[in-house]
Design a protein that fits this description.
This protein is an alpha/beta fold. It has 8 helices and 7 strands.
Length: 239
């Protein structure tokens, strides 16, 4: 309980500090590594503050690879966990628009190049996906949560949204599926408190070549990705 209390007491000042550091970067002169740095360091700092342990197996990925990352989503801690685990990649989240409305922090997300996704407006959502494709062409690996929101059912993944597979097919990059287990027990959806003793495990699956699919095959690709990731998630949860 002491760790949890200490975390919440320091969360706001730490968030503001790293957000301001991000906002002070000269976007015209900063390298990709510099633009990455404060978000990644913020994620790592949050995990250390909370005392959260993560076991990650990225052996299926090329350390220098360029991917579209897809990951299941169960907890608000998923974002700092992924910032930390994917430290060696130029990764940007395609995330719900409401995160970008948070004072200071939301502006820092936009400044770093993360992409807001408006799920309420189809036309705006497609513009966001096109922005993510443009970002990918600049050497960034977009990361999207294909379930669209946090999943309260820890037994299986929720159905995937078609926007995630449209992004992957438009980018033309290999898809790197990530399955994460434990974060839903760490901080369940709707809970205000977390369990700092909960271990989180993440496993990267072998990248999927998208060249066998066209945009007309998006529903088949969506179903294939769901079957692959849901099966891997259940095996990880049982192990």
């Amino acid at each position: 309980m002491l760790r949890v209390l200490r975390f919440f007491l320091t969360l706001v000042p730490v968030t503001v500090y790293y957000s301001i550091r991000q906002l002070l970067l000269d976007q015209d002169k900063a390298s990709l590594d510099e633009k990455d740095y404060f978000g990644k360091l913020y994620g790592r700092t949050m995990l250390r503050m909370a005392g959260i342990k993560v076991e990650a197996d990225l052996s299926a990925l090329d350390p220098n690879g360029h991917y579209v990352f897809m990951c299941n989503h169960q907890s608000l801690f998923d974002i700092p966990i992924l910032f930390d685990v994917l430290w060696n990649y130029h990764m940007r989240f395609v995330a719900k628009q409401s995160l970008f409305r948070i004072p200071i922090y939301g502006k820092a997300l936009g400044n770093a190049g993360h992409i807001p996704l408006n799920r309420e407006n189809r036309r705006a959502a497609m513009k966001s996906l096109d922005a993510a494709v443009g970002t990918a062409k600049g050497g960034i690996s977009p990361l999207i949560f294909p379930e669209g929101t946090r999943n309260p059912d820890l037994d299986k993944l929720m159905d995937f949204k078609v926007g995630a597979v449209v992004l992957a097919l438009k980018c033309g990059l290999p898809v790197a599926p990530l399955v994460m287990e434990g974060s839903g027990k760490l901080l369940p959806k709707g809970s205000r408190f977390f369990n700092p003793d909960q271990l989180v495990r993440l496993k990267a699956l072998p990248p999927v070549d998208t060249s066998a699919y066209t945009m007309k095959d998006r529903e088949r690709f969506k179903d294939d990705m769901y079957a692959l990731m849901n099966d891997a998630y259940q095996k990880l949860a049982r192990s």
